[in-house]
UniProtKB/TrEMBL annotation:
Domain Exocyst complex component Sec10-like alpha-helical bundle: start-end pairs: 77-157
Keyword annotations: Coiled coil, Exocytosis, Transport
Family membership noted in the UniProt record: Belongs to the SEC10 family.
Species this protein is from: Timema podura (Walking stick)
Protein name, entry field: Exocyst complex component 5
The keyword Transmembrane helix is assigned to this record: no
Length: 157
């Protein structure tokens, strides 16, 4: 069985199209890699700027005004921020940063207690998904064992 010119031409066009698609796909992957290499440092810079802004709030006198620390609905986000600030504060020298360090430690403890209370509430309502979320957040806190203790206490009741 011999192939006709039309079949050969169609196969040649198909092969040429396949090569072009592969070429474009390779270019798209390369472009994606380049964009990612630019976006990652930018995202880190944005995160660092946010942390600096929150830290500045802890440096200023008076109560915290940032909504993330006053709105109970944003406790997950507040926990992430305060945990990072707590780590940063531990590295700061005493003296001029002492008030900010105390404010951060106080807010850290408050958020940790709120998370444990929310864990207990989620356990009472059998919200296993929320319990898992809170346990994951609390695993980065120093009082993670209290979460485990609260779970054991609630289970025994």
């Amino acid at each position: 069985m011999s192939r006709t010119r039309e079949e050969m031409s169609s196969m040649s066009l198909f092969q040429e199209l396949d090569e072009r698609i592969n070429y474009v796909a390779a270019k798209v992957i390369h472009l994606g890699d380049q964009l990612e290499s630019v976006n990652t440092p930018r995202a880190r810079a944005v995160e660092a700027q946010k942390l600096m802004n929150y830290f500045a709030e802890f440096l200023s006198p008076g109560p915290l005004l940032a909504q993330i620390f006053t709105d109970k609905g944003q406790i997950d986000e507040a926990a992430d921020i305060i945990q990072k600030l707590h780590l940063i504060a531990q590295e700061l020298p005493s003296g001029k940063f002492e008030k900010a360090k105390k404010k951060i430690a106080s807010k850290y403890d408050e958020i940790e207690r709120s998370l444990i209370e929310e864990f207990v509430k989620a356990h009472r309502s059998a919200d296993i998904g929320r319990m898992k979320e809170i346990a994951t957040i609390l695993s980065h806190f120093k009082g993670y064992s209290q979460c485990v203790d609260a779970f054991i206490e609630q289970s025994q009741m």
